[in-house]
Amino acid sequence: MGRLCSVINCSTRNSKVTTERVTLFYVTKDDYLKSQWINVVCAVNSRETNVKFVCAKHFKTEDIKRTYYGSENLGSEVNNADVE
């Protein structure tokens, strides 16, 4: 099975509804933020959910960083818009 958004009624979960490419974000490893992600997704889904990925549709545009400047590649820009 491919990667799916953990939000049950998300249109990106059904390939028959859309062929749109949407970035999927892995749940963070930070324990505090991870618990927040899980709480929100479970509340939206109205049930306990194993949260692995959340698609970009569930974030504010301004909350998504489209570029990353890694410390090992100072000055190098990496575009993550196509990362899934």
From TrEMBL:
Limits of the THAP-type domain: 1-84
GO MF assignments: DNA binding; zinc ion binding
Pfam (any one): THAP
UniProt keyword list: DNA-binding, Metal-binding, Zinc, Zinc-finger
InterPro entries reported for this sequence: THAP_Znf, THAP_Znf_sf
Gene3D superfamilies: THAP domain
Entry annotated with the keyword Zinc: yes
Source species of the chain: Aphis craccivora (Cowpea aphid)
Family annotation (SUPFAM superfamilies): Glucocorticoid receptor-like (DNA-binding domain) (SSF57716)
Listed name of the protein: THAP-type domain-containing protein
Top-rank taxon, per record: Eukaryota
